[in-house]
Amino acid sequence: QAGSDPLKAAWHLVAKGMPETSKMEEEVRMAEMESKLREMVIDIVRPSVHKIANCKSDMEELFVMLKLQGNQLQEIAAEIQLTSERSNLILDFKHRLDDSADRLSRLDSRLSLHERDVWDRVESLEHKNDTQSGFNGTTDRTLERV
User: Fold this and answer.
1) Residue 15 pLDDT > 90
2) Cβ neighbours, 10 Å, residue 34
3) 3-class SS shares of the chain: helix, strand, coil, % to 5
């Protein structure tokens, strides 16, 4: 037993040549010294234990925050994907609108040309009609004289 605890081993060596009362006094002093040493070890270790406990709680808080931020990043990535898909649809729709506008413009130009041709024909026909009416009038008068 004396070999397992260094303080007790030292005490047994000192106590062999002492009287019984001084052995008790020495034992009390050794017990007080052991108690003080234990208190000193506790005082030395206590800040480290507190720091470790604080670090552990900080790590747990950081882990929760990291998890929340990971979820938020996933939501943002999903929103970005959805926005990208929608923007592609919008671009496709814009291209289709531009194509339709071009076709409409070409059709409008062709219709304008046809309208001009129709008006030119109508005017030509009116002129021919007037000429024919004049000719008919002259022919009618000539026939009446005959």
Assistant:
1) no
2) 14
3) 95, 0, 5
